[in-house]
Structure formats: structure tokens, C-alpha cells
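Hi there,

I know you've been waiting on this one. I reran it after we fixed the sequence typo, so this is the corrected version. Both the input and the resulting structure follow.
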Amino acid sequence: MDNKTTKLLQLGRKIFAKRRESGYSQNKFAEMLNISREHLAKIETAKRCISLGLLIDVAECLNVQVKDLIDF
């Protein structure tokens, strides 16, 4: 696995963990972000890259800073 994929997987796992800590289902969280549940699932499993704009939205919905999600 290359470094980029490793970082995307770490980011996806952090988003997953923070989402679960916040009590949001994948369906509910995807709805909050105005994306499909499938899109969110692919981000959480590093099968899809996340845009900067969506990353900002994720951080806002989880009440964390972007740096908290990408600090690995």
C-alpha cells in the first residue's frame, strides 16, 4: 500500500470513529453532508478521495477542526 492510500485510510478511519462517537449512522451523516451513503462508505474505507470542501463540512458536522481529522 502506498503512502497516499495509507493516509486516506487513516483519514477514513478517523471520520468513521468520530461519526460513531457522535452517534450518527452512515445514512444520517451522509444526509447531513448532502451525499449518498455509498459515497460516505467509500470515503471511510479509502476507496474514494474526499474533496477539501467536503472535508471541511465533515469537520463542521462532527464539531472538530480539520486538523484533528488529518493529524496522523
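Quick highlight: The chain is about 70% helix and 0% strand.

Best,
R. S.
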